[in-house]
Amino acid sequence: DGIRDQPRSRGLGDVYKRQALDGYDVEKLYVEKQSLDSRGLTQDDLSVDVKIISSDEIKKLISESEVILNF
Question: Which of 7, 26, 28, 57 has its CA 20 to 30 A from that of 66?
Fold first, then answer.
């Protein structure tokens, strides 16, 4: 899944950001806290900078967004 695909230990952060995110002008990345917790991961384990938010905050963001890219 998307969270497990990009652990910092793989060293793919720069490649991932440059090829996937920059091509879509993505400026903000969000990760659901429960998803991290269920996989035993922390923000330090991820190779890209993200904002960790609750599932309620995710729902609110989705409902308020015009475009959603789900990686």
Answer: 7
